[in-house]
Amino acid sequence: MDTIVYSNSGMEKGKINLPSFFDTKVSPVLLHEITTAYLNNQRSGTHKTKSRGEIAFSGAKPWKQKGTGNARAGQRNSPLWRKGGVIFGPKPRDYYTKISKQKKRLAVSMAFSSQLQNGNIVVVESIKLDVPKTKKAADIIKNLKLSGQKIIFAINPDKTFQLAARNLNNVVVENIKNINAYQILWADKLVLTPEAIESIS
Questions:
Q1: E-assigned strand segments in 7-107
Q2: Poorest-confidence range of 43-47, 112-116, 173-177, 181-185?
Q3: Which of 199, 183, 185, 192 is nearest to 144 (CA)?
Q4: Residue 71: which residues within 8 A CB-CB, separation 6 or more?
Q5: Res 147 pLDDT > 80
Q6: Is the separation of the CB atoms in 79 and 54 below 8 Å?
Q7: Domain extent listing, the chain
């Protein structure tokens, strides 16, 4: 499977033969499982509400049982009362979801294949800057005609370009070795280099 390789200026420089994992049959079920697990694993699980036993109120009965005309009440920390406890509220928990290495690798291949089929992958000959200037990074994006709210540069580590692009709201520079299926699918445009493709082959 071939795709066009562009220069930083947006000119066509030739074609590259993509590895076989860019032609993986896509399983929406597996991709959903992987992305759900990724989002679960980002959760801190520190949410907490107080039950009636944890509310700092006196344990005294608010008023006598009979004769006042009020409804019966035993304590001020009742969940029925303002500032009372919460019934079945959330408690701290671990949302970690384990996914096997085989599924992770397969999902990454599927994510790349899906984005390629949708025309969202752009291969650039090289992405390197002499100085970390935001304008230079913005010029590269403009030359490549990258549209969309979420653009990911999945490349080999380049500190200069990473510094240049960090002030651009819609741009993420990610080490290709750390890329995962969720990030690939999240991007409106995914920019790769031949060097990056070779490093994950």
A1: 12-17
A2: 173-177
A3: 192
A4: none
A5: no
A6: no
A7: 2-42+95-200
DSSP reduced 3-state for 16: strand
For 110, half-sphere exposure in the C-beta direction (CA atoms, 13 angstrom radius) is 19
Residue in this structure with the two tokens 């294949």, named with its chain if needed: 113
| Sequence-distant contacts of 79-84: CB under 8 A, at least 24 apart | 79/52, 83/55, 83/57, 84/52, 84/55
Task: Choose among 86, 99, 75, 110: nearest CA to 184.
Answer: 110
CATH fourth-level superfamily of 2-42+95-200: Ribosomal protein L4/L1 (3.40.1370.10)
> What is this structure's pTM?
0.80
- Tokens 């445009």 correspond to 189
C-alpha–C-alpha distance, residues 158 and 119, integer Å: 25
CA–CA distances in Å: residue 177 to residues 23, 64, 144: 20, 69, 23
